[in-house]
Amino acid sequence: MAQTLIEKILTRHSGTRAFAGDIVEFEVDARLARDFGGASVVKNIEQNGLGIRDPSRTFFTFDCNPTGSDQRYAENQQLCRVFARTHGIKVYDIDKGIGTHLAIDQGLVGPAETLVSTDSHANIVGAVGALGQGMGDRDIAYAFAHGKVWFEVPPTVKLTLAGMPAREAEPKDVVLALLRRFGAHGLLGAAVELCGDYVDTLSLDGRITISSMATEMGAIAIIIRPSREVVDYCRERTDRELPELDPDPDAGYKDVLTVDISGLEPMAARPGHPDDVVLVSEVAGRRIDSAFIGSCTNGRIEDLRSAAEVLEGRELAPGVVLKVVPATDAIWRQALAQGLVEVFKQAGALFGNAGCAGCAAGQVGQNGPGEVTVSTGNRNFPGKQGKGEVYLASPATAAASAIAGAICTAANIPSEPVVHPSAAAEPARTSGPSPVTTEPKPTVLSGRVWVIDQDNIDTDMIYHNQHLAVTDVKEMGRYAFGNLDGWQDFAGKAKQGDIIVTGRNFGAGSSRQHAVDCFRSLGVGLIIARSFGAIYFRNAVNAGMPVMVADVVESGLRNGDQVEVDLASGTIKVTGTSRAFKGTPFSDVQMGIYQRGDLLASRVG
User: What is 469-506 written as a DSSP string?
Assistant: First the structure.
């Protein structure tokens, strides 16, 4: 049978012909753990008496807190350093930058290879035709120990971009347009092969921008067949043989789609939802307090050049703060050598250490209550980049808006900047603590229902990133749903065995294991959703946390109803009635891990 590109990559790494729907165990070429997840990876390995399969393919990358300015992060980083010294593992420390970018630039991964990381944007390596996956700490511990992970081969969507965007549109505008087209779950669980004349013209930096936002559309990855320039770039950085794989002409695709980007103009995502995308002209004039240029989506040298071209010879609007953070130290040095740092400083910008910056609490790029920010990041979920409003846009639009004091494109910077009043404060939210409880794991579960009729509940709503330094599961329950409007008091109301029923794409966003473990901490017995974010689902499975796909959120169930759920058959019965529903039964892999209680309790297979 003919194969898609991801099926060929997984075939090459699993030793078996892989097709959509198959569950395979594939070899991982590069295994990365970051500073917030790395400490938990280390604890999992040590607590389960595991070793390291191949230290030369195993790495720590400290990119969430590159200054080491937070005591809990510093503690986690040092724990990883000590572990790395013991096992001969290379550490890309706080001075190096974003791990997924380093993986490409340092030759850790290349075309047709595989990578896993505790970074939900590990699929960024799709930019070089590789398969990258963000995973939780158990998966990464397993990969460190065994060099493999289990994986369900996703269906593939072939997506062609037709036409060429307007001259002022950047790759960020194109990927925002895709978010407008597909929404937060329009490509849920699919691998995307991206092609078209425009795609062929993209440099590595542009490809990185587009691949980096696959996660925001619910996709497993956006994989782009590498150009000769990209192949040569990767081959210069490694002695490994890097094969060139192409999908078969008659490969079986889930969908074959075309999106017309002809004449596409600069775009922006409105606060709260990366997929709430409009033309910049539709939000032009909105006063801003700050702008941020950086992140794994737009921290490359071409992004910095684009912003510097807009800023050169100009100054920021009064009261507006511009924060610029390169993706890696090498890019930081390029910017210095090319005079870009001087341009930013003359304009009045803060030029920060290389790293993730705005996506991590306590780092450059966060905003405060009432603050309006134009950001080149990939997410603007409530609370993700701070307590204010975050508009997503391209580097050129962010720079132009910082000069204008209001949202605008580079072609429409006013002659005089907008002056605005100071922002108002917002009351802090709190949630109460709850004890950790443990119950046996039967295959038929009964419990009280909590119905949360909402789609796209992301991991920041479930477990805010300001608590990521917490590694003790017993402490996590108090923060469950602490950033979900109307549910901040959930931790204080939840009881042992409760069952959450919710909508589509539950657990979208980050790869943080905390968003699963906070419910384990509370003793929640089961989560039923119409669909799950791919990383969240496997994090739950690997932790032995029961999760089931079933369309019951609009079934008439009410908070407090009692249900009985058979994990083996997928049957859901409402206690005391004849009402019953059908969910997806546990797979053999899910049931096996559930019965053991944890992926790491013993090796799969």
Answer: T---HHHHGGGTTTTSTT-TTHHHH--TT-EEEE-TTB
Q: In what order do the strands lie in the sheet with 221-224?
A: 221-224, 191-195, 156-162, 255-260
Q: Kindly state the tokens that stand for 564.
A: 């009985």
Q: Provide the token pair at 274.
A: 């990366």
Comparing CA positions, the residue from 294, 91, 323, 81 lying closest to residue 208 is: 294
CATH topology identical between 5-260 and 277-412:
yes
Question: What are the C-alpha distances in Å from 576 to residues 192, 197, 526, 563?
Answer: 45, 60, 20, 9
What is 5-260's CATH number?
Answer: 3.30.499.10
Q: What ranges make up the beta strands (E) of 153-220?
A: 156-162, 191-195
Q: What single-letter amino acid sits at 498?
A: D
Q: Which fold has domain 444-601?
A: Aconitase; domain 4 (3.20.19)
Q: The whole model's pTM is what?
A: 0.84
Helices 137-146 and 534-542, interaxial angle, to 10°?
70
Q: Per-block average pLDDT, block size 10, for the chain (605 residues)?
A: 97 97 98 92 96 97 81 88 97 94 97 96 97 96 98 98 97 98 95 98 97 95 96 96 93 97 98 94 96 94 98 96 96 97 97 84 78 92 83 97 98 90 46 43 95 96 88 94 95 96 95 95 97 96 97 91 96 94 96 94 60
Q: How far is CA 128 from the centre of its chain?
A: 18
Q: How far is the C-alpha of 12 from the C-alpha of 475, rounded, in Å?
A: 42
- Nearest to 389, CA basis, from 300, 268, 553: 268
The domain limits of the chain are 5-260, 277-412, 444-601
Output the CATH code of domain 277-412: 3.30.499.10
